[in-house]
Amino acid sequence: MEAFTRLTGLVAPIDRPNVDTDAIIPKQFLKSIKRSGFGPNLFDEWRYLDKGEPDKDNAGRPLNPDFILNQAPYQGATVLLARANFGCGSSREHAPWAIYDYGFRVVVAPSFADIFYGNSAKNGLLLVTLPTPTIERLFVESRAVVGYRLTVDLAAQTVTTPSGEMFQFDYAAGLKHRMLNGLDDIAITLQQAATIRAYEAKRRLSAPWLFAQT
Amino acid sequence: MTARTLYDKLWDVHVVEDFEDGSSLLYIDRHIAHEVTTPQAFEGLKIAGRPLWRAAATVAVSDHNVPTRDVHHIADPVAKIQLDTLARNCREHGITHFDIGDPRQGIVHVTGPEQGWSLPGMTIVCGDSHTATNGALGALAFGIGTSEVEHVMATQCLVLRKAKNMRIEVSGSLRAGVTSKDLVLAVIGKIGTAGATGHTLEYAGSAITSLSMEARMTVCNMSIEAGARAGMVAVDDKTIAYVEGRPGAPKGAQWTLALAAWADLHSDAGAHFDALVHLDAALIEPQVTWGTSPEMVLPISGRVPDPADETDEVRRTGVQNALRYMGLTPGTALVDIAIDKVFIGSCTNSRIEDLRAAAAVVQGRHLAANVSLALVVPGSGLVKRQAEKEGLDQIFRAAGFEWREPGCSMCLGMNPDQLAAGERCASTSNRNFEGRQGQGGRTHLVSPAMAAAAGIAGHFVDVREGF
Ligand code: SF4
Fold first, then answer.
1. What interface predicted TM-score (ipTM) does this complex get?
2. Could you give the dihedral angle defined by the CA atoms of residues B74, B79, B82 and B84, in that order, rounded to the nearest 10 degrees?
3. Do B17 and A186 make contact, defined as CB atoms within 8 angstroms?
4. Do A214 and B122 touch (CB under 8 A)?
5. B259: closest chain A residue by CA
6. pTM across the whole model
7. pLDDT tens-digit readout, B199-257
8. Cα B169 to middle of ligand 1, angstroms
9. CA-to-CA distance for B351 and B386, rounded, in angstroms?
10. Residue A37 CB partners (closer than 8 Å, separation 6+)
């Protein structure tokens, strides 16, 4: 998992509440054997005018010009600004996989669905919760200013607007430690690499057959 | 030193580190992969740029999606991609893989012991809940999820909490015509599908020690249906004889060293068990499940239960729902239930002894007219070859059974072998959940001999009477 410390990124506002995981990544893409490569199908039903299929080449598909991610000023956005209860629906981890794979590193919203929240943290996607009035203002500003960027600082737990206005957000200490250091469960275990090697060395002597070539 | 159980010993020797919160870092000796639960784990490693900690510890075999009629014709493109992905991942990482067409290919839990991939004293994991099968070798073997598969491949370890110890003691001896499948179904009938939740099982007692290794595998296989993640049997002379000479077994000086280590793989006298269950083997009859959970099981002499007899509201509803799904009337004698199909196979009962037992019943007889399909699916290519050498395929074919290629087949309805809605099957597999063998399909779990006998009679029958 990649560490998240601080980022100044272009904002793409998605102005709908209750964006569910089926909207984020429709179910036909779950048959995939991968956890990467979902980016082109993020928000598939909103983004394209035809129906997406797992084996379809997305490059030639007709785009919906009204959808925000298809509009020129929002190309390269890394901060997704959203409304309440973002990520509700199924437990599919494919949802944060798709958002991350598209290029987003932060989602800012008034609230998130529980399972989606946990899944996102596991995959290095930072979810920032801010009060509804603050989110409302960010929506207004981001629409008014072309190339609107937010600075998100995890260590300080702040979101800063281009005008220098700063908002504080809550983030659990344990998760914060993992995010700041890019630690996933595997990374945490790998911190014990020397201990594991020492165990193996000892074991190799007493039970060498366990280390035979298969 | 205090007396320890077999599980305690296996656990202790694999602990790399104990953590303050009560969990431990446990070293995993063997990871066995199959196509369904590994692609995202390999993908995860790739994204993170992590190598396999020790590629030689992982081995792989394709099984769940393998078609059993023509193995090289995979109609479902999604299944094909999963199979190809496993092959490619194994190639990329230098992992031994028995792919479709390899004569050693088979169901993951059949191939593991057969190849000596699983050995006594090992910790063995696989992204499949029936991994406990390998516990018959005196190993700590259990199923894991995809994220744990990735964790094992990256670190050769898992973070786990130790389970409690439960001893299932089966004394006396099984009567003629009663098998290890009946024994384990009787255990599940007694303790229930949640009876061993949070425990690791050790099967012991004279009825267990007198079982063959393959029969012990059948027992350990269904530990998960009793709620346990792992089940095991102590190492004895049979274990050693089974392991000796297998491709993955230690050789020469290492064999001698291994024998010395394996001599300790049993529970010490006086070791503490958190729970004890006792069964008298002589009282176990051939078993048949009647419902939609493995604990809904009765001796063949029994009758379909009446929900009205259940005092507990929840249980009553459970029985009602099961009977509705299974299309059964309370009070019906089990021997009066007619079947449509027979499935002899799965990681529970597809080894050579299972096929011999079924063939012995079938020999010189023919499928009943009302049985539309009877499948015999060997657990591996090697089992199939051995059976053919013994002429078992001819016996089955002559009786109207279909002789298929190795794979999971109709155990789970993921490949073309499936029950149609409403069809009733005598099955040697391990799960009778709704839809398990195909949407609307009705599964009755039985031993291979009982499945064969049901196929001949056209309905369930006590294999001990006239067979
Ligand atoms: S035979 Fe059935 S239970 Fe065994 S591994 Fe295959 S699908 Fe799972």
1. 0.94
2. 10
3. no
4. no
5. A207
6. 0.86
7. 999 999 999 999 999 999 999 999 999 999 999 999 999 999 999 999 999 999 999 99
8. 26
9. 10
10. A101
